[in-house]
Amino acid sequence: MPVWLTPQAADRLRNELAALADASDDSGEHDLGDHERKARIQQIRDLLDDAVIGQDPPDDGVAEPGMVLTVRYDDTGDIETFLLGVRGAEDGDIDVYSPDSPLGTALAGARQGQQRTYRVPSGAVLPVTLLKAVPYGRHRSGAVPQATPPV
Fold first, then answer.
1. Does the keyword Protein biosynthesis apply (predicted)?
2. Between the chain's N and C termini, which has fewer beta carbons within 10 Å?
Protein backbone atom coordinates (compact mmCIF):
# COMPACT_ATOMS: atom_id res chain seq x y z
CA MET A 1 0.00 0.00 0.00
CA PRO A 2 1.42 3.42 -0.91
CA VAL A 3 2.50 5.75 1.88
CA TRP A 4 2.23 9.53 1.77
CA LEU A 5 5.31 11.74 2.31
CA THR A 6 5.91 15.45 2.15
CA PRO A 7 8.61 16.47 -0.35
CA GLN A 8 10.75 17.62 2.61
CA ALA A 9 10.40 14.24 4.33
CA ALA A 10 11.30 12.42 1.11
CA ASP A 11 14.40 14.61 0.73
CA ARG A 12 15.46 13.87 4.30
CA LEU A 13 15.04 10.15 3.70
CA ARG A 14 17.04 10.33 0.45
CA ASN A 15 19.82 12.19 2.28
CA GLU A 16 19.80 9.64 5.08
CA LEU A 17 19.93 6.84 2.50
CA ALA A 18 22.91 8.44 0.76
CA ALA A 19 24.74 8.88 4.07
CA LEU A 20 24.05 5.28 5.08
CA ALA A 21 25.12 3.95 1.68
CA ASP A 22 28.37 5.96 1.86
CA ALA A 23 29.16 4.60 5.30
CA SER A 24 31.22 1.47 5.05
CA ASP A 25 32.49 -1.05 7.51
CA ASP A 26 36.24 -0.91 6.89
CA SER A 27 36.91 -3.70 9.34
CA GLY A 28 35.19 -6.23 7.11
CA GLU A 29 33.34 -7.61 10.12
CA HIS A 30 29.57 -7.84 10.10
CA ASP A 31 28.77 -6.46 13.52
CA LEU A 32 25.31 -5.46 14.78
CA GLY A 33 25.86 -1.86 13.65
CA ASP A 34 26.42 -2.97 10.08
CA HIS A 35 23.34 -5.18 10.23
CA GLU A 36 21.23 -2.29 11.57
CA ARG A 37 22.59 0.05 8.89
CA LYS A 38 21.70 -2.40 6.12
CA ALA A 39 18.23 -2.93 7.59
CA ARG A 40 17.65 0.84 7.71
CA ILE A 41 18.83 1.20 4.10
CA GLN A 42 16.32 -1.44 3.03
CA GLN A 43 13.57 0.16 5.12
CA ILE A 44 14.16 3.57 3.51
CA ARG A 45 14.33 2.07 0.00
CA ASP A 46 11.05 0.22 0.55
CA LEU A 47 9.44 3.36 1.92
CA LEU A 48 10.57 5.55 -0.99
CA ASP A 49 9.61 2.89 -3.57
CA ASP A 50 6.02 2.87 -2.29
CA ALA A 51 5.72 6.59 -1.56
CA VAL A 52 3.33 9.14 -2.94
CA ILE A 53 5.41 12.29 -2.54
CA GLY A 54 3.72 15.63 -2.06
CA GLN A 55 0.72 14.81 -4.20
CA ASP A 56 -2.26 16.07 -2.24
CA PRO A 57 -5.28 13.84 -1.89
CA PRO A 58 -8.62 15.27 -3.04
CA ASP A 59 -9.87 18.23 -1.02
CA ASP A 60 -13.02 16.36 -0.04
CA GLY A 61 -12.79 16.59 3.76
CA VAL A 62 -12.20 12.85 4.15
CA ALA A 63 -9.47 11.73 6.56
CA GLU A 64 -6.74 9.90 4.64
CA PRO A 65 -2.93 9.99 4.34
CA GLY A 66 -1.74 13.39 3.17
CA MET A 67 -4.50 15.24 4.99
CA VAL A 68 -4.02 17.57 7.94
CA LEU A 69 -6.63 16.58 10.50
CA THR A 70 -8.04 18.69 13.30
CA VAL A 71 -9.69 16.52 15.93
CA ARG A 72 -11.37 16.95 19.28
CA TYR A 73 -10.69 14.35 21.94
CA ASP A 74 -14.22 14.12 23.27
CA ASP A 75 -13.30 12.87 26.74
CA THR A 76 -11.19 15.97 27.48
CA GLY A 77 -12.34 18.52 24.90
CA ASP A 78 -8.72 18.99 23.77
CA ILE A 79 -8.22 19.89 20.12
CA GLU A 80 -5.19 18.80 18.09
CA THR A 81 -4.05 19.25 14.49
CA PHE A 82 -1.68 16.78 12.83
CA LEU A 83 -0.67 15.34 9.48
CA LEU A 84 -1.79 11.81 8.72
CA GLY A 85 1.38 10.41 7.16
CA VAL A 86 4.49 8.34 7.75
CA ARG A 87 5.98 8.47 11.25
CA GLY A 88 9.75 8.82 11.31
CA ALA A 89 9.71 11.03 8.23
CA GLU A 90 8.19 14.07 9.89
CA ASP A 91 8.09 17.38 8.12
CA GLY A 92 9.09 19.32 11.23
CA ASP A 93 6.38 21.99 11.18
CA ILE A 94 3.53 19.70 12.22
CA ASP A 95 3.12 16.51 14.25
CA VAL A 96 2.68 13.37 12.16
CA TYR A 97 0.49 10.43 13.09
CA SER A 98 0.70 7.16 11.21
CA PRO A 99 -2.34 5.87 9.35
CA ASP A 100 -1.51 2.53 11.00
CA SER A 101 -1.67 3.94 14.54
CA PRO A 102 -4.84 3.27 16.56
CA LEU A 103 -5.93 6.91 16.07
CA GLY A 104 -5.05 6.94 12.36
CA THR A 105 -6.89 3.67 11.77
CA ALA A 106 -9.96 4.93 13.61
CA LEU A 107 -10.08 8.17 11.64
CA ALA A 108 -9.48 6.67 8.18
CA GLY A 109 -12.42 7.57 5.97
CA ALA A 110 -14.05 9.85 8.55
CA ARG A 111 -15.77 13.03 7.41
CA GLN A 112 -16.09 16.35 9.20
CA GLY A 113 -18.25 15.99 12.29
CA GLN A 114 -17.99 12.21 12.49
CA GLN A 115 -17.10 10.66 15.83
CA ARG A 116 -14.95 7.55 15.97
CA THR A 117 -13.39 5.57 18.80
CA TYR A 118 -9.87 4.23 19.23
CA ARG A 119 -8.10 2.06 21.79
CA VAL A 120 -5.15 3.48 23.76
CA PRO A 121 -2.32 1.33 25.16
CA SER A 122 -4.03 1.12 28.57
CA GLY A 123 -6.93 -0.64 26.84
CA ALA A 124 -9.39 2.23 27.24
CA VAL A 125 -11.58 3.09 24.26
CA LEU A 126 -11.76 6.84 23.68
CA PRO A 127 -14.04 8.94 21.47
CA VAL A 128 -12.59 11.43 18.96
CA THR A 129 -14.40 13.73 16.52
CA LEU A 130 -12.97 14.85 13.18
CA LEU A 131 -13.44 18.61 13.01
CA LYS A 132 -11.60 19.29 9.76
CA ALA A 133 -9.51 17.50 7.12
CA VAL A 134 -7.57 19.52 4.51
CA PRO A 135 -4.83 18.46 2.08
CA TYR A 136 -1.33 19.08 3.40
CA GLY A 137 -0.49 21.46 0.54
CA ARG A 138 -3.49 23.64 1.27
CA HIS A 139 -2.70 23.63 5.00
CA ARG A 140 0.95 24.50 4.36
CA SER A 141 0.12 27.33 1.98
CA GLY A 142 -2.47 28.74 4.36
CA ALA A 143 -5.02 28.78 1.54
CA VAL A 144 -8.53 29.49 2.65
CA PRO A 145 -11.37 28.15 0.56
CA GLN A 146 -13.66 30.64 -1.10
CA ALA A 147 -17.18 30.78 0.24
CA THR A 148 -19.65 29.24 -2.13
CA PRO A 149 -22.53 31.61 -2.83
CA PRO A 150 -25.99 30.22 -2.13
CA VAL A 151 -27.80 28.91 -5.19
1. yes
2. C
Q: 96-97 and 51-53: which strand pairing?
A: unpaired
CB 90 within 8 A of CB 6: no
Same domain (yes/no): 7, 36: yes
Q: Which of 36-40, 60-64, 72-76, 85-89 has the lowest mean pLDDT?
A: 85-89
- The verdict on residue 151 lying in a domain is no
Could you list the residue range(s) of the whole structural domain that residue 31 is in? Answer: 3-53
Q: What is the pLDDT of residue 34?
A: 83
CATH number at residue 126: 3.10.50.30
User: Is 83 within the bounds of a domain?
Assistant: yes
